[in-house]
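I hope you will forgive my troubling you with a question about protein structure. Here, with my thanks, is the record as I have it:
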Amino acid sequence: MTRTESSIDHSSGQAAQEQATDDPTTERAAVRPRLTTLILLSALAVLPVNMILPSLPKIAGAFHADFALVNLSVAGFSIVTALLEAIGGAISDRFGRRPVVLTALAIFIAASIGCILAPNIGIFLLCRMMQACIGPCYSVALVIIKETSDEREAASKFGYLAMGWALAPMVGPLFGGSLDELFGWRASFVVLAIFGIAAFVMSLRELKGSRSPSSAAPGNYLASYGLLLRSARFWAYTLCMACSMGVLYIFLGGAPLTIGDTLGGSSARLGFYMGLVPAGFILGSYLAGRYGARIPLGTILVVARLMTCIGLAIGFVLSLSGMTEVLALFGPCIFIGIGNGLTMPAANSGAMSVRSDMVGTAAGLAAAMRIAGGALIGSVGGVFIAQSATIHMLFTLMLASALLALLAAIWAAAIGKRSY
């Protein structure tokens, strides 16, 4: 080989290397963590919420504390989580995804150990609130998927992530109750600490290079929120999620008061039939994971919200006809879960696509608004149900919130069409 040919080959190899470095697809593949790691992060973000529910009486007895005070370990945890969701996403845009995840996990592990060793109820509650630092890991996991996938592939992966996010709170009370019965209430926090350590080690190995995609994000967090809140597209996706969650919160708060009487006062049967909704959510999330990469986001949202509205409309008609069969009342409610399971991955993907330099901020703010908006709708619905605890009132309120979510989905689909 001549010197000239050698120089050409060297130049070609260098050019190919530079092209591979500049190629975002190659860069994505190099820093893409395993989906199982991100599913673990998302599940761990919600598992502690209600895993200790069966242990609350024993915790109150161990610390000689009032049960209402101990109950703050659940209600307070949820409030702190909602606040940290918004803050954590913005911080990840500024300092990167990896530092936020590792810091959150480190605090979570220390807080879990603190709950085990707490000498009094005050220290226990403080450590329990510190555990809520794990909350933003779900939003950051969404962001990492968004940054390492195209829009439709991201929506598909969001579906599988949502399955883990939905399964964790379903099995949490059963898992925690079993640990409590076998080893005592502290066992739940031991297991949470172990899960946290496992997630920390996996994240340390795999979340390499997962920094913010752009350094152009505004340094002022309030300014970042303002930019997002001035976006009609962001509002459309976020309102769709909030109203969809509102349907679920109305059901969770109203079903025991209205439909529960048809079960003869059996709490076990009530819990079983109410479990149809989260089961539907898992099915919807699976469908989103399976087909989300092939269908436009706007289409998924509209179809998902139509399914929920049709299911609830059937339930409303059946309730007006006086039918009291259990499956006739709970059967239509499974479409709440299926619709939400399809909605959340697509709407999250859309909300995070508004600004490429503020993906984390968008994910955190959307999560906080989804939680707050859903809780507000659920609270308003609770007022009406308290005045008229009838089955058709429950379906009326759920259908009203579902129709609002459908309007937001149509709005999001229309904006999406104009952007192409």
Remarks:
- The first helix runs from residue 3 to 22.
- The radius of gyration is 23 Å.
- Confidence is low (pLDDT under 50) at residues 1-30, 210-218.
- DSSP finds 20 helices and no strands in the chain.
